[in-house]
Amino acid sequence: MISLSEGAYEQGYTVFVSSYESHEGTWSYLIGFPYAIGKHMLYYNGEHVGRLSLLFLMGISFILCFVFLFMVCYGFWLTRHLGRIVKGIGDIFLRSYAPLTEKGMFGEIYGALNQMDTEICQSDKVQEDTELNITHDLKTPLSPIKGYAELLMGNPTPDKEAVQEYGGIILKSANHTEKMMNDLKLTYQLDSGAVPYHPQTVRLVRFLKELVIDIVNDPAFTNRRIEFENNIRECAVSLDIGLFRRAVNNLIMNALTHNPPETEVTIRIDSGSEKKALICISDNGTGMSDKEQSELFNRYYRGTNTKEKPEGSGLGLAIESRLSRSMAAILMSRAG
């Protein structure tokens, strides 16, 4: 049996021989397998492991110290960047922000702060310009109202013609003030997304023709050349009458006001693809420079191609650009 356990078995079998000790005695056993298998023994030496435990503790201590130092350094690094972010937000509020370098892990945050500061500065400039223009434009119509009211108060018995003349001027200035306030209100409504849109079904060709007739009959444009061309059949469309009239009227009035008297303005209706109606308002006037085109839809911007000061609020085309975007968003949401 010992020879079988220590030597090579002729048929490739494997035999294990060992013993088991208990309180009752020692038991010997022999186990054989009819095929070749492997046998591995694991021995435990307590003395060697005891010597290694010190190195193990030193390694664990070193790793813990390294992790602690890393966390402390990372904390200081993170605190420094968070401090820069908090300070940047405070500087933006105080309008004393200095742009931060957009690099590293916080590069996107620094970029967002830089963009926020740029947009806030632009907003501040727009607000400042708006306040100045509102103050100036309100004083313009209020001055004649106040002046002619003082004339009426200072003359105890004004004649009828003077009363009618002064009253007409006061009424005209009051209407101009009311129009400017309505334009300003509409601008802020469009900026906030509160679009006062009330669609109605109208006959498009007839609607535009009547609008052009009203402008032609205006005494201020009696000698101006306004042409109306229609290349489609009458069609019914759903639109907000007040806003649509305002948009078309503003475009025509700008073409008449900012061009020489001999300029011809043409309003043409054509058919587009997918049963669409195209409205084109054109003129053969002086045109606009690149600078004027870039400023065209900004608030209170007035073109330089006229020597006359228009009595508008300076918000016309700014409203039209916002209105067109709002109407497009409404139509797309309804189509969806």
Automatic annotation (TrEMBL):
GO biological process, one term: cellular response to phosphate starvation
GO molecular function: phosphoprotein phosphatase activity; phosphorelay sensor kinase activity
Location(s) in or outside the cell: Membrane
Major location (coarse): membrane
Reactions that this protein is recorded to catalyse: ATP + protein L-histidine = ADP + protein N-phospho-L-histidine
EC number, UniProt record: 2.7.13.3
Positions of transmembrane segments: 52-77
Keyword field contains Phosphoprotein: yes
Gene Ontology CC: one annotated term: plasma membrane
SMART domains assigned to the protein according to its UniProt record, in alphabetical order: HATPase_c, HisKA
InterPro entries in alphabetical order: BphY/WalK/GraS-like, HATPase_C_sf, HATPase_dom, His_kinase_dom, HisK_dim/P_dom, HisK_dim/P_sf, Sig_transdc_His_kin-like_C
Domain Histidine kinase: 133-336
Keywords assigned by UniProt, alphabetized: Kinase, Membrane, Phosphoprotein, Transferase, Transmembrane, Transmembrane helix, Two-component regulatory system
Protein name as catalogued: histidine kinase
